[in-house]
Structures are given as C-alpha cells and as structure tokens.
Amino acid sequence: MSALFGTYARSEIAFERGEGMRLFSRDGGSYLDFLAGIGVNALGYGDPHVTGRLKEQAEKLWHTSNLFTIEQAELLATRLAENTFADAVFFTNSGAEAVECAIKTARRHFFDAGQEERQEIIAFHGAFHGRTLATIAAGGNPKYTQGFGTPLPGFVHVDVEDIAAVKAHVGSKTAAILIEPIQGEGGINVVSNEFLCALRDICDANGLLLIVDEIQCGFGRSGRFFAHEWAGITPDLMAVAKGIGAGFPLGACLATEEVARSMVPGTHGSTFGGNPLACAVGNAVLDRILEPGFIPHVQETGEYLDWQLRQLMQKYPDRILEVRGRGLMAGIRLAEPAGEFVARLRDNRLLTAVAGQNVVRLLPPLIATRGDVDEAIGIIDATLTANREQLGNDND
C-alpha cells in the first residue's frame, strides 16, 4: 500500500525516463506524450539547453534566500517584463501560488488607494485556478470546495460570454475580474476575443483590475506568447506557471508598476520562490520559447492538429461531438465518458487527459511536429474504430 495521500487516481504505469516527445516506462514501454505533465513539459524531455543550464547552476548555488539579491531572478523578471505588458514580477513555486499573489495584490492595491471595501472579484463558471482555499473559492466549483468548510468570501461567479451578467455584478465592492483566456480544466473552452475586450472595457470604465490566469494556456501554448494577446488586450495582473519551468517547479505573478507598487516589504513572500536554481531553468526555458520561429511553429502545428481532429469528427460524427482549442491546447468532446477513452488511448501508448465533461485534453510538448500529430491522430482513429467494433459485438 502506498504511503502517499490518496488524492490521485494514479495509473500503475511508472515512467523512468523521457526523450523528446516520448516517455519510457520501467517495463520498457514507449508512450507518445500528448499530455506533457498537464501542459508543464513545454520542451518535452531532455532538452539539452535547459538540462545544461540546470546542471551548471546546480554545481554553483541552489538556494540562498530572498533576503539577498538573486541575479537569476532579476534577469528572468527583466526579460518577462520586456516581453509582456508587465513591469514587475513575483516568483512562486506553483500556479495556485501565482493566483494567490494576484488576488492579494489586487486587494492590496485598493487598500492602499483608500478603498479597502473593494475586495470582491468576479470570476467564471467552469474556471480552475488551483487547490488552495483561496483558489478553490475563486474557481467556485463545488467539486473542489465541498468538505473544506465555508468557501473564502469575496468571489462571485457568472457564465463566460455573458457580458450583461458581468456588468450586473460590478458594484462598489468590486476590485477585479479574474479569467482564463482558455479554460483548461473546465474543458478547453476558448473565451472569445470580443468577450475579453468587453471585460477590459468594463474594467477601464469602472476602475477595476483585469487578472488573467495563463497558467495552462500561456508561455506559447496558444500560438502566441500569452493567449490574451489574441484579443489585443492588456491585463493588469497575470498568473503564470506550468510551461515557464518546463518541468521545474516555478510560477510567477506579473503586474503593471501601478498595481505592483502596493506590494511593499512584508506584504507577501515565498521561501523558495525565485531561487537561483529555479530561475536559471526559467531563463533557459525562456531562451527556447523566444527563439525566432518557435512560437510560430506552435501556431502552425496547432492549426494542423485542429484540422486533423476535425477530419476525425467528420469520420465519427456520432462519437466526436466537438473539437475545441487553440494552438497546442486541444479538446475532443465525446458522446461517451472521456475517462474510459483516455484509458484506452493510454493502453495504445498515447498519453492524454480528461477535462470538463467528456472532453479528451491534448497538451503535447510545444516541440511537437506534424509527424507527431499524425501518429497521435492514427492512435485516436484506431482506438475509435476498435471501440466501434467492440460496441457492435456487444450489441450482437
């Protein structure tokens, strides 16, 4: 019996190494990875540049303390600011911590402005922002809040794309609007550019802050550096994680100077956030993501994946109800339980995950090629065909 908490329904497969797009189990099995650690392993496995920087830094210094200047963190923050809307960065270890920082920063901003009553944040049904007490309250899903006491107050939830409902909930206590430009856990739901622009307009008209959660959809995954760029908007705060460390625990909260200035010494902190080892890896990952042609490659490969999935939908109209996504963040909504289908794909050596209701989630490493897409589509096709034949036999 495992000594670990039973919080995960784990497969018995144990991986011992990875190479490029593939994971290898300890029994010798080879798996095509279209999950990437749930969008984390952005560069696949064994990227020589990232591995080299990790080894180099590991031989020098892993950790000091944020009581001292950390040159690797200063560099990574500067580079992120230069390539985004942001002026300031706070480093964390995870996405949930990045969202927590954004929530605290938004509330502190209004406290310093003499409007401490403005603590409420408008969020959206279907969202997922993490598993801390604050972030499950922000997500608002009873599946995650049940059993943990009264949810933290200060959050209201409306439907995505319902701009009238957003406007109706803006009041004297409202501080911010929090949204994922593409809902990951909620089912690969792409928020329209028009809705994101309308949220920006509401924030501007009412003096609110716009917080985007790009933990899963950011860092190149959508075919832009960050998914909100598709709408041409500028947020005030942004939570980032997953791909930023390509497998190393790292997250960040990015903010404009006006918003970040309220976070003075003592208002927030993290023992491990932004340590030399994590930020050395983060800089190496950023080197790769910002290479000329890297993000356009993601967009091109993502378009090819989308086209191939839509061909499958035409072939299996009774099985595939919808294809969703943007870039290399795709979802297949099935007419059957997605969990069972994901398990069959895994048996056929393709790794995927479930999202939302009956959605198979595809989050391959951003290095995926058309050949990798063709291989994955072939496995999905064969699995659908075999399952159709099995269903036919069962009905005989």
Task: Report a brief summary of the structure.
It contains 13 helices and 17 strands. It is an alpha/beta fold and 396 residues long. The strands form 4 sheets. A 7-stranded mixed beta sheet has the order 4-12-11-10-7-5-6, sandwiched between helices.
Description:
This protein is α/β, with parallel strands linked by helices and 396 residues long. It has 2 domains: 15-33 and 293-395, Aspartate Aminotransferase, domain 1; 48-289, Aspartate Aminotransferase, domain 2 (3-Layer(aba) Sandwich), CATH 3.40.640. The chain has 13 helices and 17 strands. The chain has helices spanning 36-39, 48-58, 71-82, 95-112, 133-139, 142-145, 163-169, 193-206, 257-260, 276-289, 294-315, 338-347, 370-395; strands at residues 15-19, 22-25, 30-33, 88-92, 120-124, 155-158, 174-179, 182-183, 189-190, 209-213, 237-240, 251-255, 320-325, 330-334, 350-351, 353-355, 359-362. The strands form 4 sheets. It has a 7-stranded mixed beta sheet with strand order 4-12-11-10-7-5-6, sandwiched between helices. Strands 1-2-3-15 form a 4-stranded mixed beta sheet. A 4-stranded antiparallel beta sheet has the order 13-14-17-16, covered by helices on one side. Strand 8 and strand 9 (189-190) form a beta hairpin. Helix 2 (48-58) runs antiparallel to helix 10 (276-289) and helix 11 (294-315) runs parallel beside helix 13. The longest helix has 26 residues, at 370-395. The chain is globular.
